[in-house]
Amino acid sequence: MNTRTHTPLFHISKRGQLPWYRAWLIRGIALAVALLLCALVTTVFTGVNPLGVFAAIIRGSFGTARKFWVLLQEMSILLCVALAVTPAFMMRFWNVGGEGQILMGGLATAACMIVFGDKVPNGLLILTMVVASIAAGAIWGAIPAVFKAKWNTNETLFTLMMNYVATQLVAYYCNVWDKKGSGIVGIINPNTHSGWMPGWNSPGGQKYLLNIVVVALLTVGVYIYLRYSKHGYELTVVGESERTARYVGIKVERVVIRTMLLSGGLCGLAGLLLVGSTSHTVSTTIAGGRGFTAVMVSWLAKFNPVMMVLTTFLIVFLQRGAGELSSSFAQINDSFSDILTGIILFFIIGSEFFITYKINFRKAEKEA
Amino acid sequence: MEKVAAVKMRDITKSFGSVKANDGVWLDIYKGEILALLGENGSGKTTLMNMLAGIYFPDEGKILVDDREVVIRSPKDAFDLGIGMIHQHFKLVDVLSAAENIILGLEGKLDLKAAKEKIRAICDAYGFEVDPDQKIYDMSVSQKQTVEIVKVLYRGADILILDEPTAVLTPQETDKLFAVLRNMRDDGKAIVIITHKMHEVEELSDRVAVLRHGQFVGDMLTKDTDAQEMTNMMVGHPVVLNIERPEPKDPKPRIRVEGLTVRSVDGILKLDDVSFTANSGEILGVAGISGSGQKELLEAIAGLQPVEKGSISYLEEDGTPEELIGKDPLSIAAMGVSLSFVPEDRLGMGLVGNMDLADNMMLRSFRRRKGFFTDRKSPHDLAERVVSDLEVVTPGIATPVRRLSGGNVQKVLVGREIAAAPTVLLTAYAVRGLDINSSYTIYDLINKQKAAGVAVIYVGEDLDVLLELSDRILVLCGGKVSGIVDGRRTSKREVGLMMTKLGGGRG
Amino acid sequence: MFDLTFFITRAVQQGIPLLYGSTGETLTEKSGNLNLGIPGVMYVGAMSGVIGAFFYEQSAKGALNPVLAVLIPLLSCLFGSLCMGLIYSVLTVSLRANQNVTGLALTTFGVGFGNFFGGALIKLAGSDVPSIALSATSACFKRSLPFASKLGWFGQVFLSYSFLAYAAVIISLLVAYVLKRTRIGLHLRAVGENPATADAAGISVGRYKYWATCIGSMIAGLGGIYYVMDYASGVWSNDGFGDRGWLAIALVIFTIWRPNVGVLASFLFGGLYILHMYIPSGMNLATKELYKMIPYIVTLVVLVVTSMRNKRENLPPQSLGLSYFREER
C-alpha cells in the first residue's frame, strides 16, 4: 500500500479549444521531428548523407519543370480520391474502398475505349467514358451503403472486401481483353488515340493540365458542397448523430446511399483520369494504394478540402522524392518512400493527441 | 454512539477544461450512516463521487480512508479500499451474462460455478431476483440495476455510493432497495446516495450534505431539517415553489389519439390501446413510471415511431381531422402541421453537440429555403435572438453546443422549437437535470406557449411539478392509460396510485 | 487427375499464414482495436525473419546449426512484429489516434519496410533474379515428422507439415480457450465491448489493449515468416506475400471472431485461394481470376448475414475502432 501515498506521475485531461497557431506549432514540431528521424533512418540504413537525401527529395519534385508538373499531376489524382472519400468520412462512414471504386471507374473507362473505340465519334466516346466511369464507381460505393443503411453492416470491413472483388474483376477483364495470354492490356487504341482525353498541354509541355484543372475545380466544388449545400449539412448531421437526423426528418438511409454514390462516383472519376487521360491502359495496380493513402490525406486535413491540398502535397512530395532517391543512390529503392511516409504519418497522427489533450505532470510541491 | 469517519475528502478541486466542477470541497462520510448528497445538477455531486470511485482524478486535494491518506488512481484502487459505486448509467457489458458482469475485474482463477453460488446466496439474503446466466441485453432496466447492486455486494464493499438509483425503479422496487440499504447501514457500512427527490432524502437518509456550484455548502442531520431549508441551501436563496397555471383560453381539440398500439423492435408492447385528446391552449401532463411508454407516445405523434394500430389525428382550426400515422416528420411538416418536439435526449437527439448554435438552429429550418444551398443568415439571427431572449450563457454563437451547461443547452433547444411557432408542442422531461432557475424559465416558456393557444403535451417525472403545471394529467401505466385527471382537483396520492394501478410497469 | 490429398495439403499450407494473421487480428479486435495494419505487420514479420536468416546464413557460411537457424529468424520475426504492434498501440491507445488511419499508415510502412529491405538484401546478395533464396534456413523450418510419408494419405493430410503449421493450430485453439474460458479472456472481451464498464470494474483498459495488440501482432508476424520459410521455401520476392494480410482480416469476419473456427475456415480459405489452379484444364485464364474472388465474396456474405440476423454474440466487438478516454464527457 506504500505506493498509494504518491500521486500518479501524470494524468491526462482534455483541453479546451487550442488557438490555431499553437495547434499548428505542435503539428510543425511533429513534422520536424519526423523529418529528423527520417534523415537518421536513411543514414543508418543506407549510409547516405542525410543532407544529400533531403536535396534529392526536393529535386524529385522541383528539380526540373517536368518533375514539377509530374508532382502536380500526381497530386491531382490523389487529391481527387481524398476529396471523394471526405463526404463519406464526415458522415462517419469509413469508406476504405476507394481502391476498388477507382478500379471500377478505370475498368469502365477502359471498357468504353475498347468496345466503342473507333466506332463512335471521339466526343461521344469520351462522354460515355465519363458517365460510365462515374456510374461504375458510384455503384461500387453504393453497395456497402445500402447494406449499412438497411442492416447496419460494418462498412469498414465491407468496403475493404469490395476492393479485392474489384481487383479480381479487373484481372478478369485484363485476361479477356488481352489476346496474347499475358494478362496485360497494353496501351488502348495506340494508333487512333480514340477515347484518349484531350491532354491540354501544360507550360512544361506535358499533357497534364486537364487533370490538374479538373481536380482544382473539384476541390472548390467539394468545399462548397460540404460547407454550403443542404446535402453537406445533412450528411454532417447524420455523421454527428443519426438520431438527431431522424428527429429533424432527414432520411438517413437516403443520405447514406446518396453520399456514397457521390464518394464512389468521384473515385470513379479518378479512375477515368488515370485510364482515360494519363496511362491509356488498365491493370489491377492503377489505383496504386491511393484509396488507402487518401484516407490518411483526408483525415490529416481534418476533412477540409482546402487543407487537403497541403496534405496531398506532403505525401506526393515524399513519394516523388523517394523515387528520385532510388535513381540517385544505388542503396535506395522505390519502397523507401513508404517507410518515410509511414514515419511522418505516425508523428502527425500522434501529434493530434497533444492538440486535443493536456498532460498534467505531478507538481513538485505536493511531494512533501 | 461515536461516529467513525470512513472517508474524509479534503479541499478537493477538479476542473474540466475551463469549468470548475469541484472547488475545494470538504466532505466526511461516516460508517453506519446513510448520507444524502444534494445539489442542483451541475453542482458537482457526481464528479465528486466519481473521484472516490476512481473514475476521475482530483486536480487538487486529498482523500483519507480510515484516516489514512490514499490515492485513488483507478476503479481498482477504489475497490481495494472497499469503495463501490453504482453509476446512473449502468456499467454493464451487454453481451456478457449477469454472473460474468458481476465477477468482472476480480482476480484469480475463473470459476463461474462458485461465483453463481455466491450470487445466489447474496440474492437469497436480500431478496433479489437475478438469473446469473441471463445476458444483460435481455434484461429490463430494473433487472440491470439489481445486477449492479449485487455486483457491489459481491465485492463486499464497505462504502457504497449510489447515483440517482431510484430514477428507473417502481415504488415497490424503491422500497425494497431502501430496505436493503438500511440493512447495510445497520451492518456498519457507509452509504452515500445522490438524489434529487426530497421525499427520498427525508425517508432514507440520516444526514444531508449540500453542494452548490461545485462548493460544499454545509451538512446537517436529516431530522433537524426540512425540504424548504435544503432547497434554500442548494439554490443559495429562498425560492417560491409556485408555478403559474392560468386558465386555458378557448380550448379546442387539437390532437386526437385513438387506440394507439406500439411495439418495440423486439416485439415488446410499449403502448396498448391508448386514447386521449389534447386541446389547444392547454397543458396535458403525462405522468408515469419511467419506461411506461411516454417516449413511444411522443415519438409516435412526432412521426418517429412505427405504429402497430390506432390513429393519431391532427384537428385543424375548423375541426377537420388529418391522419398523422404513417407520416415521417418531413411529411407532417409538409401538411402544414407545425409540430415541435423537445426530446428527452437533448444532445443525442434534439441538438448536435459538435455544431455551433447557429447550425443547430438550422436543423429545423434548413429545408425551408428553395434550391441547393442553405441559408446561413436567418439561423444566425435566430440564434442571437434565442441567446438574448432566453439569457443563454455562452461565449458566442459559434460555440459548439456541447460546451454549454445543461440548462443552457435546454434553453437553446426549447428556444429553437418554440421559434417555429408551433401549434403542438411535445416536451419530454423538459427540466430534467436543470437547476431551479432554469427550470422556472422553462415552465414560463411553456406557459407562454399555452397562452398563445398551443396544445402542449408535457411528459414529466416530478409529480409536484406536474400537479402544479398541468391542466389535465394523463397517467400511463405499463403502456396503458390508467386515467386522465384534472390537474387542479387531483392529488399526488391519487396520481401515484394510478401510476402503479395496473400492476406496475415492467419488472 | 485431381489429387485430393495433394489439394488438401496445399490448401492447408496456403491457409496457415491466414490462420496466423486472423488469430492475431481476432485477439487484437477483441480488445476493441481494429488493426488494419495487419498486412504491414505480416510483411514486417516476414522481412525481419528474412533479415535474421540472411545474416545468420552469411555468418555461418554453410554450416548451419539447425536450432539457431530456426531460433534466430523466429526471434527477429517476433521482435519486428512486436515493434509494429507497439507503434499501433502507442498511437491508438496512449495517444488515442484514429484506428483506421493508424492502421493504414502501418500497412503502408510495413509493406514499404518489407520491400525496401527485400530490395536491399537482393542487392547485397548480388543475385541476378529479383529474389533472395534462403533454402538452407528454409530446410530447417520445413522439417516434418520423418514417418509421415510412410502413412499414405493419412500421413500426407495430417502429419506432413512443419512445426510452424502445427503451432498455428495450437495457438489458435489456445487463443480461443483463453478468450472463452479464462478470466483474462473475460476481461479482454469486456474491454472490447465496453471499455468504460471494464474500467469501472477495475480492469486496466490500456494494459489489455496493449497486450492484446502486441501479442496479436506477434502471432500475425509468424504468419509472415511461415509464408517465406515454409510456403515459399525460403524465397523472398518483393510483393510476393500479396494480399494475404487483407484476406486474414476477411477471415476474422468470416469466423465471426472465433479463432477455433478459424482453424478449419483458414484451410477452406486456403483451398478457395488456390482453387483456380485446380479447375479443369481448358478453362481460360480469365475465369481463374474470377475464382480468386470467392473468398472475398464468401466473407461479404457472412458479414451481411450476421448483420441481418443481428445476433449480439456474432456482431463485431461493440467498441471496435473507437479509442477510449476515461474522462470523456
Shape of chain A: globular
* Structural class designation of chain B: alpha/beta
- Give the helix proportion of chain B (percent range): 25-40%
Strand fraction of chain A equals: under 5%
Radius of gyration of chain A: 23 Å
Rg for CA atoms of chain B: 24 Å
Please tag this protein with its features:
heterotrimer, B: 507 residues, Rossmann fold, 2 domains, six-stranded mixed beta sheet, 17 helices, C: 329 residues, ABC transporter involved in vitamin B12 uptake, BtuC, 14 helices, 2 strands
Structure explained in plain terms:
The complex is a heterotrimer of chains A (368), B (507) and C (329). By secondary structure, chain A is mostly helical. Chain A is built from 13 helices and two strands. Chain A has helices at residues 20-46, 50-62, 65-90, 98-116, 122-151, 155-177, 209-228, 230-240, 242-247, 252-279, 290-300, 305-328, 336-356; strands at 10-14, 357-361. A two-stranded antiparallel sheet of chain A has the order 1-2. The longest helix of chain A is centred in the middle third of the chain and has 30 residues, at 122-151. By secondary structure, chain B is α/β, with parallel strands linked by helices. Chain B has helices at residues 45-52, 75-80, 98-102, 112-126, 141-154, 171-186, 198-204, 227-235, 294-301, 329-334, 346-350, 357-365, 377-389, 406-419, 436-451, 463-469, 492-500, and strands spanning 5-16, 19-30, 33-39, 60-65, 68-70, 83-86, 159-163, 190-194, 207-212, 215-221, 253-263, 269-279, 282-287, 309-315, 321-323, 339-342, 424-428, 455-459, 472-477, 480-486. Chain C has 14 helices and two strands. Chain C has a two-stranded antiparallel ribbon. Chain C is globular. The chains are: A mainly alpha (368), B alpha/beta (507), C mainly alpha (329). At the A-C interface, strand 1, helix 6, helix 11 and helix 13 of A face helix 3, helix 4, helix 11, helix 13 and helix 14 of C.
Note the topology.
The complex is a heterotrimer of chains A (368), B (507) and C (329).
Chain A: E1 10-14, H1 20-46, H2 50-62, H3 65-90, H4 98-116, H5 122-151, H6 155-177, H7 209-228, H8 230-240, H9 242-247, H10 252-279, H11 290-300, H12 305-328, H13 336-356, E2 357-361
Antiparallel strand pairs in A: 1-2
Helix pairs in contact in A: 1-2, 1-13, 2-3, 2-12, 3-7, 3-8, 3-10, 3-11, 3-12, 4-5, 4-6, 4-10, 4-11, 5-6, 5-10, 7-8, 8-10, 11-12, 12-13
Chain B: E1 5-16, E2 19-30, E3 33-39, H1 45-52, E4 60-65, E5 68-70, H2 75-80, E6 83-86, H3 98-102, H4 112-126, H5 141-154, E7 159-163, H6 171-186, E8 190-194, H7 198-204, E9 207-212, E10 215-221, H8 227-235, E11 253-263, E12 269-279, E13 282-287, H9 294-301, E14 309-315, E15 321-323, H10 329-334, E16 339-342, H11 346-350, H12 357-365, H13 377-389, H14 406-419, E17 424-428, H15 436-451, E18 455-459, H16 463-469, E19 472-477, E20 480-486, H17 492-500
Parallel strand pairs in B: 3-8, 3-9, 6-7, 7-8, 13-18, 13-19, 16-17, 17-18
Antiparallel strand pairs in B: 1-2, 1-4, 4-5, 9-10, 11-12, 11-14, 14-15, 19-20
Helix pairs in contact in B: 12-13, 12-14, 13-14, 14-15
Chain C: H1 4-30, H2 38-60, H3 66-94, H4 99-125, E1 131-133, H5 135-141, H6 152-159, H7 163-181, H8 183-193, H9 195-200, H10 205-231, E2 235-237, H11 244-254, H12 259-278, H13 285-291, H14 294-309
Antiparallel strand pairs in C: 1-2
